[in-house]
Amino acid sequence: MVLKSNKIDITDRVVGKLKDGEIELYLENEKIGSIHLPQESSIQMDHHFESDKQKIYQHVTTTDSPQARYTDCDEGGWC
Fold first, then answer.
1. Which Pfam families match (predicted)?
2. pLDDT per residue over 14-67, tens digit each?
């Protein structure tokens, strides 16, 4: 039996996580590399998203104080 080394394209399976001025690259749960971001770099976000101080936020609409009739339900859905 002869073993042969091959190269497999995994690009669409790699996930990046923003952390401490760089993008950490992961394949499933294994860190496989990183990309250093220059200080002057900017992140362009879609509508309802923003980046601030190395964090990414999503703007959502929530209720200020939920009504009790919707919060005191059992697991079966009975309130």
1. DUF2553
2. 999 988 888 999 999 999 999 998 887 778 889 999 888 778 899 998 877 666
pTM value is 0.63
10 contacts: CB under 8 Å, gap ≥ 6 = 27
Q: Tell me the CA distances in angstroms from 24 to 29, 30, 35, 39, one per residue in order.
A: 11, 10, 7, 16
Helix spans in the chain (H): none
